[in-house]
Fold Homoserine dehydrogenase.
Amino acid sequence: MKDVNIGICGLGTVGGGTWEVLQRNARIIAGRAGCNLRVARVANRSPRPDLGLGDTPFSTDLNDVVNDPDIDIVVELIGGYDDARRLVLAAIEQGKHVVTANKALIAQHGNEIFDAAREKNVIVAYEAGVAGGIPVIKAIREGLAANRIQWLAGIINGTGNYILTEMRAGRDFDEVLKEAQELGYAEADPTFDVEGIDAAHKLTIMASAAFGVPLQFDRAYTEGIANITPYDITHAEALGYRVKHLGIARSREDGIELRVHPTLVPEKNLIAKVDGVLNAVLVDGDAVGQTMYYGPGAGDEATASAVIADLVDVARTVSTDSAQRVPYLGFESDAVTDHRILSPNEIRSAYYLRIQALDRPGVLAKVASIMSENGINIESIMQKESELHDGQIPVILLTHTVLEKQVNDAIAEMEALPEVEGRVVRIRAENFL
Ligand SMILES: NC(=O)c1ccc[n+]([C@@H]2O[C@H](COP(=O)([O-])OP(=O)(O)OC[C@H]3O[C@@H](n4cnc5c(N)ncnc54)[C@H](O)[C@@H]3O)[C@@H](O)[C@H]2O)c1
Ligand SMILES: N[C@@H](CCO)C(=O)O
Ligand code: NA
């Protein structure tokens, strides 16, 4: 059986997991790939004696991998934007295929990287970058190829979902984040997880693969979980909802919604039951209907599972004529459209609003009249006397589906009322499978 030579750059959580699984399941993997995936060289800032690398050549300089003429596939697992971009472009320049788990890199520089790869007739694969071990890129680009995909929505950051799940159990945000970091789930800079940037990277990639548009990370509306309080989690539950951090992409006649934010979902929705580091992506296709992909979104061997699936794909595909390969973002270049990404004001959603109001007669009536003047129908409204505190009593309401601009205008008017204190809390609400 032929050897395909692999060079692994970065032996951290994912790199270490990839090494381990390649050793443990070598026979199974070779049986599927039709060749031996041989790790010919590894590079990392510091040695990993715990991995038992044996006589596999190790260096601290990534260039040693890129410049090794024996290496067929470079596996980029160092993370970040700049070093990774340089490394991947250099590997492509040398005519090597690339497998990466780096969604930041693909979301920001994917258009440039895929152009370079087309030029050199090499493959760049990135399954591990989106929803970790779940083969969701495979599902969108290949399994659902018959469909006009209308929307997709997912829990696509394991760290954020882990934090929200543990907060429900009454645990402290910072303590849970620290735990997620220790478990190897969080990004090197955990603000990427907390502020929704990591989820926006993944959503950007999925939206392009689903709708056939170029990667446009800068157009994604991004809101994280930092402002979600136990108070709102509890009150959302009283209304029959769970608070989940979702990425939502929807293709409409007038453009594409591309948004990442905390969302109320009815507790009976399947996606409301996805807890901990697990991810789930729902995809709605016109032929198949709704399908859901569920599994571990982060972690060493779970992510390695996707890295190695890409290695097998690349190893098998190299023998195919490049024109017959699966296109990078699912569509051939001449089929990519310029359907625009919508601005946040053009989004349509339902909304949970919490208004900190003074306990004075007529406040509810004023709130209701602002809502109605802005064309917003109220689904439910809640105010508990028992929560009267310092002369203030929160008003919680849930709207029907409206344009975000209507809600923003109404919030501005409410915040200007003398009876309303501080900012109005706004969480979007969506109803799924
Ligand atoms: N951890 C996960 O669960 C997970 C899941 C999916 C995707 N990812 C992605 O996989 C990539 C790697 O993540 P990780 O969690 O393994 O990170 P990590 O920090 O554990 O590992 C990165 C490794 O790369 C090495 N490295 C970084 N820059 C280097 C350089 N210039 N030269 C030599 N070595 C260098 C570091 O020494 C480190 O060992 C990131 O892009 C991340 O977003 C991670
Ligand atoms: N930090 C990411 C890793 C997987 O991409 C997460 O928590 O989902
Ligand atoms: Na994946």
